[in-house]
Amino acid sequence: MLYWLGVVAFALAILISVSLHELGHMLTAKGFGMKVSRYFVGFGPTIFSFQKGETEYGLKAIPLGGFCKIVGMTPQDDDVAPEDQPRAMWRYPVWKRTIVMSAGSITHFMLAAVAAYFAAISLGLPNTAYPQTDADTLAEKPVITITECTWINLPTTQQECVPGQNGAIAGPAYAAGLRDGDLITRVGDTPITTYGQLTEAIRALPAGAVPVEYQRNGATATANVDLVAAQRAPITDSEGATTTVSVAGVGWDQRSVPTMIEYGPVEAVGATADYGWFLVERTFEAMKRIPDKIPALWNSITGSERDPETPISVVGASRLGGEAIENGVPELFLNIFISLNVFIGIFNLLPLLPLDGGHIAISWYERVRSWLYARFRKPDPGRVDYYKLMPVTYAVILIGGAFTLLTVTADIINPITIFK
């Protein structure tokens, strides 16, 4: 029951945020004097509507977004009444049109900021300094976690590690007295300051005893660790070809860096800004990886294991929100909501029609082109013909629709799960 309550709550939260997106367009358009003829939540058949002033407001049957109809968004709009021509959107200065078209994305950013601030002072925000990749982990301090059992050859299937069985031995570091949370400062003659240096130093040595200097509770001590030869992949490529190297049975202790941090009301302002910028950077990185992830997304539909880094749809995000509530992790629910709003806000600003960013890009293209023609004493070329851009627009819609269908299908058939 909690799972489905979480799913419905998350889907409703996204519907509200998208409705507020359209509200942002409407309020800024009305504020500048443009005519807004319709504002609806949802698509499809109309459930109800009412007229207030010059705008019709209503609710439609399919709760997948909403729309706001601003009169005369392009010069080619042929449904503008003669008396509304002076208020057609395309006649307004480019800076006003930019504000109106970007208001939807700004609304998403504001929602994300408010939710992040609330999370910062109540549940905590994810620590942006926490390692996000293997390379980040290698750059951390060499605070270790100890394995009591170590594989000589890593098994291809999941199984219990029992010393003396299936090529497993007692962990060398554990046998030498090292314990979770110890900070390694030297391996043999090599000083250690990062976990990457620790791993490289151990792998560079021959199998056999080596003195390992460490700190525990502020005191420095030395343990003689009997390194063993084992098959391991490169430390920067876990799926690379394995080679024989020395191992000690240690790993990076994730507890040495907190994953979540709670802030006071004043500190939360800076933390919210820092986390917001972190999400912006991560969003652009994720967008760049989308083309490479499409084959994995398709394979997840045809029977392969779902890659946790493949894109998800609102359906997948709602399912993750349901998991978060079911497992008593409301901070994860909020974090997914924040991340999705940042993504939607950025995505809508991409300079592609029919996205808001496409309209903004054309407005500024027209402005710059008119300025250049005026500088060269040439007649103003006028407005861009949107009809000539329709093939590109249809291509974007087709690709976007196919991608959405692919992600929704994967999220239904083979969803990403966090709690297994």
Automatic annotation (TrEMBL):
Cofactor: Zn(2+)
GO terms of biological process kind: proteolysis
Membrane topology term: Multi-pass membrane protein
A Pfam family of this chain: Peptidase_M50
A GO MF term: peptidase activity
Coiled-coil stretches noted in the UniProt entry, renumbered to this chain: none
Source superkingdom: Bacteria
UniProt keywords, alphabetically: Hydrolase, Membrane, Metalloprotease, Protease, Transmembrane, Transmembrane helix, Zinc
Main localisation: membrane
Location within or outside the cell: Membrane
Transmembrane portions of the chain: 99-120, 332-350, 392-413
InterPro entries: PDZ_6, PDZ_sf, Pept_M50_Zn, Peptidase_M50
Domain (PDZ): residue spans on this chain: 171-216
Ranges for domain Peptidase M50: 9-370
CDD domains named among the record's database cross-references: S2P-M50_PDZ_RseP-like (cd06163)
Family listed: Belongs to the peptidase M50B family.
PANTHER family linked to this entry: MEMBRANE METALLOPROTEASE ARASP2, CHLOROPLASTIC-RELATED, REGULATOR OF SIGMA-E PROTEASE RSEP
The name this protein goes by in its record: Site-2 protease family protein
Originating organism: Paractinoplanes ovalisporus
